[in-house]
Design a protein that fits this description.
The chain is mostly beta strands. The protein has one domain (3-328): Beta Barrel (Porin). It has 2 helices and 15 strands.
C-alpha cells in the first residue's frame, strides 16, 4: 500500500467514526447533564472523560487493545520507515474510598513490519511493562442558594512507578535482526521509544486533571513521564516527555481533544547512530521533539469505548495514527 493512502485510510475511518458518535442519540447517564447539580456529590473515576495518553491511570479499571500506524516521514524511502503496532493493556483500580485508589497496570507492544526494501515481513513482541500508581481525586462544590450546593470542579491526580524490559532482543549491541529494529525504533520514536528500546525500562509518571462539571465537561490534563531505557554499559535513552491536553464533551457520548507535547532526550554511550538506511543521526546534546495530537473518544454502551487519534511529531519522528477499543469500569 502506498504511504499516502495508508495514512489517509485511518484518518478517514477516524473521521467517520467521530461523525457517527456526534450524530448518535445522547444519553444523560454518561456525562454530567444539565444542570450540573444532578451528578453525585462524590468523586468517581467513572465520571472522568477520556485520557489523551493511553497509558494514563486517570481512568477506571479497563482492558484495552490499541493498534497504530507509525510512518517516519523524515526518511520515507528507507527500510522500516513504516511500522504497525498493537498494544494490549490491563488496569485494575483497588479503591480505598471514593477519593483514593491503588492502580495496577500491565501493558506492552507488538510490532508488525510489512515486506519493504527486500526485507521480509516480521512480527515481533517488543517490551512488556508494569506500573503501580497512587490516585486521588476530589469534587469541589459551591453555594448557589441557601442550603443548596452544586458540584463545579472535578479534580484527579496520580503518581506512578513504571518498570519493564524487552524479551526479544537480549543482545542490544547486535547489528542486525530484532535488536537493530528495536534500537532504531527506540531512537526514532521519541514519545513511545520506551516501549521499543531493547533492554530494561524504568521510570515514573505524574499526571493531574481538572474537569468543569456540567453539560460539556471541558477538561485540562497534564502529564509528565520520565523514563530510562537500555542496558548498562551499552546504548541508553533518557526521555522527559510533557503533554497537555484540552478537551470537551461534544455530546453526552462523544468527547474530542487536542494535545500538545514536548519531549527532551539524552542518549548515553552513543554520540552518533547509524540507521539501516545508511543515514547517521547526531545524538549529541539534548534533542527536543514536539507533537500535536487530535483525537476523540466515543462511549458506545455501558463501559465500552472506541477512540482514535492522529499525531504529527517534529524532528526524527513523523505521522502516527491509532485506534483503540476499551472496556471495563469500577463498581
Amino acid at each position: 500500500m502506498r504511504p499516502g493512502l495508508a495514512l489517509v485510510l485511518p484518518a478517514a475511518l477516524a473521521a467517520l467514526a467521530a461523525l457517527a458518535a456526534l450524530a448518535a442519540p445522547a444519553r444523560a447517564d454518561y456525562r454530567d447533564g444539565c444542570p450540573a447539580g444532578a451528578v453525585p456529590r462524590r468523586f468517581l473515576a467513572d465520571q472522568l472523560g477520556p485520557a489523551a495518553d493511553r497509558d494514563s491511570v486517570l481512568t477506571p479499571s479497563r482492558v484495552e487493545l490499541a493498534v497504530g500506524d507509525n510512518y517516519y516521514t523524515s526518511r520515507p524511502a528507507a527500510p522500516r520507515a513504516r511500522v504497525y503496532t498493537f498494544a494490549p493493556r490491563a488496569q485494575y483500580d483497588l479503591a480505598f474510598d471514593d477519593r483514593h485508589a491503588l492502580v495496577f497496570a500491565l501493558w506492552g507492544e507488538g510490532l508488525l513490519r510489512l515486506p519493504d526494501a527486500d526485507l521480509p515481513q516480521t512480527m515481533r513482541w517488543a517490551n512488556t511493562l508494569g506500573g503501580v500508581a497512587v490516585r486521588w481525586g476530589s469534587m469541589t462544590e459551591v453555594d448557589v442558594l441557601e442550603h443548596v450546593r452544586i458540584p463545579t470542579l472535578r479534580e484527579a491526580s496520580a503518581l506512578e512507578l513504571i518498570g519493564g524490559r524487552s524479551w526479544i532482543a537480549p543482545d542490544p549491541s547486535s547489528t542486525g535482526g530484532d535488536a537493530l529494529i528495536l534500537r532504531e525504533l527506540g531512537v526514532r520514536s521519541t514519545f513511545d521509544g520506551y516501549l521499543r528500546q531493547p533492554g530494561w525500562v524504568i521510570g515514573g509518571a505524574f499526571e493531574t486533571r481538572y474537569e468543569i462539571v456540567g453539560c460539556a465537561a471541558p477538561f485540562f490534563h497534564f502529564r509528565v513521564a520520565p523514563t530510562i531505557s537500555g542496558i548498562a554499559d551499552a546504548f541508553q535513552i533518557w526521555t522527559l516527555p510533557l503533554t497537555a491536553a484540552l478537551g470537551i464533551a461534544a455530546t453526552s457520548d462523544a468527547s474530542i481533544y487536542v494535545q500538545y507535547g514536548v519531549a527532551v532526550r539524552h542518549y548515553g554511550n552513543a554520540n552518533r547512530f547509524m540507521l539501516a538506511s545508511g543515514q547517521t543521526l547526531d545524538l549529541t546534546g539534548m534533542p527536543t521533539t514536539q507533537r500535536i495530537r487530535l483525537g476523540f473518544d466515543w462511549h458506545i454502551r455501558d463501559q465500552l469505548h472506541v477512540g482514535a487519534h492522529i499525531d504529527y511529531a517534529s524532528g526524527q519522528d513523523g505521522i502516527f495514527s491509532g485506534l483503540y477499543v476499551a472496556g471495563g469500569g469500577d463498581p
